[in-house]
Design a protein that fits this description.
Largest sheet: none
Number of domains: 1
Order of helices and strands: HHH
Strand content: under 5%
Number of strands: 0
Helix content: over 70%
Oligomer: single chain
Distance between the termini: 19 Å
Structural class: mainly alpha
């Protein structure tokens, strides 16, 4: 019979595996947004009519810049390393 500790560790490892997949998906999606903007170009937005309350310079460009500035991983290196260490140790 598994102990509460076994349950806690095993479920945490399972969740961390899932988290790694989701983090990779999030980074890939963010990269796709940035690549699309680079490929199509900023000039394509000059004629775009933005809905009330949302602007190119105050809303869209800062979002794009934030996505472009994401590090190689969506989480800090120490957090990523801790997740990988856990998964590698218990698999």
């Amino acid at each position: 019979m598994a102990t509460k500790g076994d349950y806690l560790v095993n479920q945490t490892v399972n969740d961390c595996n899932q988290l790694l997949v989701q983090l990779e998906q999030a980074k890939t999606t963010a990269q796709r947004v940035v690549e699309r903007m680079l490929g199509v170009g900023y000039l394509a937005l000059l004629d775009y009519v933005w809905p009330d309350g949302y602007t190119l310079n105050d809303d869209f460009v800062p979002l794009y810049n934030a996505l472009a500035a994401l590090p190689g991983s969506v989480v800090e290196d120490d957090t990523r390393d801790a997740i990988y260490k856990l998964v590698a140790t218990f698999q």
